[in-house]
Amino acid sequence: MIEEHRIGEFTLITLLDGIFLCGTEMIRAAASEEGAELFKSAGLPASGPSPEPINAFALKRNDELWLIDAGCGRELGPRFGKAPEALRAAGYTFDQVQGIILSHLHEDHVGGLINEDGLALYPNATLFLSEEEWAFWTDATSPEQYPRMAEAGLFRLATSVLEAYAGRVTALPANSEVIPGVSLVPLHGHTPGHSGVQIRDADQQVLIWGDVIHSTLLQLRYPDWSIGFDVDPQQAVRTRERLLAQLATEDTLVAGPHVTGIGRIRSCCSGGYRLDLSRYQ
After folding, report:
1. How many domains does the structure of the chain reveal?
2. How far is CA 153 from CA 32, 105, 108, 197, 274, in A?
3. Sign of CA pseudo-dihedral 71, 73, 75, 77
4. Do residues 16 and 86 lie in contact, with contact meaning Cβ atoms separated by under 8 Å?
5. Within a domain: residue 109?
6. Does residue 281 lie in a domain region?
7. Span 194-219, pLDDT tens digits
8. Residue 26 belongs to a domain with what CATH number?
9. Alpha-carbon distance 183 to 198, whole Å?
10. What is the mean pLDDT of residues 26-55?
């Protein structure tokens, strides 16, 4: 089933790339009594893990077709890399995609931009990302400063992607409008230039919040629980806490690469939050 949502004249299409298992080895604070209670409340073993999606998104308006992130490609094995197939199933071809907005350059967001030969999968698309994100991944000193990321091949992949789209990469200042109605939102911490994507039309708005949340089960209830992939865990926590507190007072819809469905953030349970999907399923 293809999940679509209308935001004014925009159509937002969720492209499921695969399901990953988010356990205590990723969110270490969940190896606790509180974590066990959350896992059990979802019908899972007390030690987890929790199945979570990896999504990319297609955004359509009139004859324009954009992507927001691109999935894993071949980076995480055969259970992933399904976003391109989902795009085709929705009735679109790769050459129709004119732009791809990237929340950040981790492998589950950019691996799907290139094929097995390292060539651009979307031949007519320009990549858009924040200036801070571009600077981090293209800084020759970054692999030395973050050796674990270098050993995992993350800088190699980012370089391959940027080279495949050479001449078609645009780095934008924070809060920039990419196209009318679609803007970057700085949500730094997970990576130095990590961004959300705000979509507005008429009186409707959706925030695709990137990797602010990797597990709605765990991190909405305990926003101070970091995941091991955060480049700056303290900043990521501050960003998440600030954003959730703001969203709980607004009518903004939220979606994410690791969120199932679309809904609104509501306060609950003494310092925690929940995602209210009831009107959008």
Report:
1. 1
2. 31, 12, 13, 26, 35
3. positive
4. yes
5. yes
6. no
7. 999 999 998 899 999 999 999 999 99
8. 3.60.15.10
9. 5
10. 97
